[in-house]
């Protein structure tokens, strides 16, 4: 007999706590409900989030993503790098679905995860474009009219800054969700880049930080090895 694994599903209490931290409209809540159900369904066959985080998915992942909206309240065109299971990109797309002209570009190189993202966009009717591609290949495809670029759990900060540089040079803001090692990552990043980061502590508690960047200039091009680029 095969072993039956019990999975702790997202709880109503967790959802209530998340929406108290980051309130949304009823329409957005309905879209997020559909997204979370789909994610739980797919999680059985594709690893979209760490299984240990499934029981507090709303606070750990959904609210973590939603908090970015207040830091770029007028942004309409977003690019989420390494979207994986859709954090923060699909959550942002659900919240922006009623905003005229809004679109979220979801960049993901893993075909299975990109398929999940397409299905999530379809069932939520969110306005988003899924790019099955490596980050280095999509800069030209997306074009320069980008208001905000995001990434979560993708790469060390100095690499993220490199990914974001062409967009920020054209006027976008970068918002990176980071963990407790943010100071060390900033120290490393400033070896390669002139940046003036603004740090926001995460509304969802823990040791999370959001790094906000409005300006990126390369400090010493020869210091960046080829392997740092996607
Ligand atoms: C650890 S997951 C994080 C996913 C999501 N952002 C989150 O916070 O839950 C990183 C994701 O980035 C994708 N990824 C890594 N490097 C990439 C690249 N160069 N281009 C596109 N996607 C990439 C991986 O396939 C993976 O799905």
TrEMBL record:
CDD domains to which the protein is assigned, alphabetical: AdoMet_MTases (cd02440)
Gene3D superfamilies: Vaccinia Virus protein VP39
Reaction equations catalysed: guanosine(527) in 16S rRNA + S-adenosyl-L-methionine = N(7)-methylguanosine(527) in 16S rRNA + S-adenosyl-L-homocysteine
Any one GO CC term of the record: cytosol
Top-level class of the enzyme under EC nomenclature: transferase
Name of this protein: Ribosomal RNA small subunit methyltransferase G
Protein task: Specifically methylates the N7 position of guanine in position 527 of 16S rRNA.
Molecular function in Gene Ontology: rRNA (guanine-N7-)-methyltransferase activity
Cellular compartment(s): Cytoplasm
Source organism (scientific name): Bradyrhizobium valentinum
Organism taxonomic ancestry: Bacteria, Pseudomonadati, Pseudomonadota, Alphaproteobacteria, Hyphomicrobiales
EC number, as in UniProt: 2.1.1.170
UniProt: S-adenosyl-L-methionine binding residues: 82, 87, 152
Highest taxon of the lineage: Bacteria
Keywords: Cytoplasm, Methyltransferase, rRNA processing, S-adenosyl-L-methionine, Transferase
Record family assignment: Belongs to the methyltransferase superfamily. RNA methyltransferase RsmG family.
